[in-house]
């Protein structure tokens, strides 16, 4: 598994509870752009409509050596390949108040497939973000002390 792009904002803004793996319906130029790490997933989200999942607001710029694409094509909705039971579970969890479906990372599985890991999480409030930063800082200091004193 080769990670092509991580969404660091997702873990800063959401408490991710469940993760799912989804295939993406892409065109050829989009695959080449993603493999060259030219994808922006930070502001994107997942929308479920008519029992189908769509990846919305993900910007994949046109491949440099290919033909030019319009802004609409770069930001188009891309269908996610999930089975019916997974979509049913995801919609049930998303219908709770405060929960969202966000992309976590995009990676190459095997040699031919590009997958998207999506997570269902509840949005953090400002004080939750401060608390998680405080815990992260404490953990980092403990690890540094362990390393310094050979624990």
UniProtKB/TrEMBL annotation:
GO molecular function: RNA binding
Protein name, per record: SsrA-binding protein
Pfam families per the UniProt record, alphabetical: SmpB
GO cellular component, one term: cytosol
A single BP term in Gene Ontology: trans-translation-dependent protein tagging
Compartment annotation: Cytoplasm
Coiled-coil regions, chain positions: none
Keyword Cytoplasm: yes
Gene label: smpB
InterPro entries: SmpB, SsrA-bd_prot, SsrA-bd_prot_CS
Protein role: Required for rescue of stalled ribosomes mediated by trans-translation. Binds to transfer-messenger RNA (tmRNA), required for stable association of tmRNA with ribosomes. tmRNA and SmpB together mimic tRNA shape, replacing the anticodon stem-loop with SmpB. tmRNA is encoded by the ssrA gene; the 2 termini fold to resemble tRNA(Ala) and it encodes a 'tag peptide', a short internal open reading frame. During trans-translation Ala-aminoacylated tmRNA acts like a tRNA, entering the A-site of stalled ribosomes, displacing the stalled mRNA.
Keywords: Cytoplasm, RNA-binding
Top-level taxon of origin: Bacteria
Similarity remark: Belongs to the SmpB family.
